[in-house]
Specification:
CATH topology of the largest domain: RNA Polymerase Alpha Subunit, Chain A, domain 2
Number of strands: 34
Shape: flat
Number of domains: 5
Radius of gyration: 49 Å
Structural class: mainly beta
Helix content: 10-25%
Low-confidence stretches: 415-420
């Protein structure tokens, strides 16, 4: 019986193989139907590795690799949730200066199988590598402009005389000079500031994409007065008094300082630190004054520029308050109606310029009740104070409200306590 088994297996091997294949097909079909294959696109960050420190990539590189994978849905979901499942890189370790075509390499983690890569884009990148170099140049310093009239500039003191220029060889080779420029136009005191360095080519155009070390320098530029010159404060001299009830609020002069000069420096040194104007007479002034005055200078001393100054004096009325009594007027009442007001007079306290308050007339200040649209009956109303002078305002009114009774003209009865 045992001897017949090999012959039986030989006779039935084809049948057994077919059965096994059919079983595998059925199993694969069952698995595929439960977890079907599909394609999915992944964007994988591309890392640059092996780049020498003395080289720089001067062409744009792709940030991401587009990777299309075919795999069961469950595998694709796991890959999407795993940041380390897919990696991509470009190896530049064997490259020097020049232009190259570099393959973009990628890898799918062995934890995820089965997976087939359908497409990868880009597969390669054309790039250019340039050497990083440095050179040292002297700093070309430049002072522009002139100090203010009567001042002189000494030689400036710069904190550095040389600069290191570094970057890509093509850019560094373009740099012909490195300049530092200080503008002293109109300066009347010593300048100390940081000045930015600028790299320029042979045509004087700025060269970008280079690093300057240092990128700025400090300069001290001493500015002093020339002999015989002096910057003086202008003092305005006034005479007289403003009108009664008014006061002087301000006085200003333009320019506030002037430059004076004398061929004899001792004359300038003996001045008290200011120069006076010709007297400004403010006698009886009731309004602002604006005028041009000359300067009072000793013999041998002159002003550099315009010898006159503009003087402005502010004059304003003194302010205070006053109490007046006014009869309450009514407006807006229908012809067939009459009204009585209680009280029929009010106290009004006004605030404003005293000269204006002292000259107020009856018609300048009125107290009015507007009865437009009001029906018969008793009403509590707030009177309005009408003031003609613009600079006068109401501080208080007493009482703040009054009572008014509106009746038909033939039925009106006086309100107790009301005025006639």
């Amino acid at each position: 019986m045992k001897q017949d088994r090999p012959r039986w297996l030989a006779r039935n091997f084809g049948t057994l193989l077919l059965a096994f294949i059919l079983a595998v097909v059925v199993w694969v079909s069952a698995v595929t139907s439960a977890d079907p294959n599909r394609e999915q696109t992944f964007l994988v960050p591309v890392e640059v590795v092996g780049l020498r420190t003395d080289l720089e990539v001067i062409t744009a590189l792709p940030d991401e690799l587009e990777l299309v994978l075919l795999a069961p849905n469950s595998i694709l979901m796991q890959i999407a949730e795993d940041p380390g499942a897919l990696v991509a890189w470009m190896d530049l370790s064997q490259l020097g200066p020049g232009r190259f075509v570099v393959s973009v390499q990628y890898q799918v983690s062995e934890r995820y199988r089965p997976v087939r890569v359908v497409r990868a884009n880009p597969q390669s990148v054309e790039l250019t590598l340039e050497e990083l170099v440095a050179k040292t140049l002297p700093i070309e310093t430049n002072v522009q402009g002139e100090p203010a009239l009567g001042y002189q500039a000494a030689d400036p003191e710069w904190s550095a005389q040389q600069v290191e220029v570094s970057g890509r060889a093509s850019q560094v080779e373009r740099v012909a000079t490195v300049k530092a420029t200080l503008n002293i136009e109109g300066a009347n005191e010593t300048i100390e500031r940081a000045v930015r360095l600028v790299a320029l080519d042979a045509e004087g155009k700025p060269v970008n994409d280079v690093t300057l070390k240092p990128n700025e320098v400090t300069v001290v530029q001493t500015i002093t007065l020339r002999g015989g010159y002096r910057n003086m404060v202008v003092k305005v001299v006034t005479t007289g008094q403003v009108a009664e009830g008014y006061r002087q609020t301000s006085i200003s002069v333009s320019p506030p300082n002037v430059m004076v000069f004398s061929a004899d420096p001792q004359l300038v040194d003996q001045l008290p630190g200011y120069v006076e104007t010709a007297p400004l007479d403010i006698t009886g002034a009731v309004d602002d004054i604006e005028t041009v005055l000359s300067l009072d200078l000793p013999d041998g001393v002159s002003v550099i520029g315009d010898p006159n100054v503009l003087v402005q004096a502010g004059i304003a009325a003194m302010e205070g308050n006053i109490k007046i009594i006014r009869l309450v007027e009514t407006i807006g009442l229908l012809p067939e109606m009459e009204a009585s007001v209680a009280p029929d007079t009010v106290d009004v306290i006004l605030y404003g310029p005293l000269p204006v308050l002292d000259t107020l007339t009856e018609t300048d200040v009125r107290v009015v009740l507007d009865l437009t649209g009001l029906e018969e009956g008793i009403h509590q109303l707030t009177p309005e104070v009408i003031i003609l002078p613009e600079r006068v305002r109401v501080e208080t009114i007493s009482p703040e409200t009054v009572e008014v009774e509106i009746r038909a003209a033939d039925a009106l009865t006086p309100t107790p306590g009301a005025g006639p």
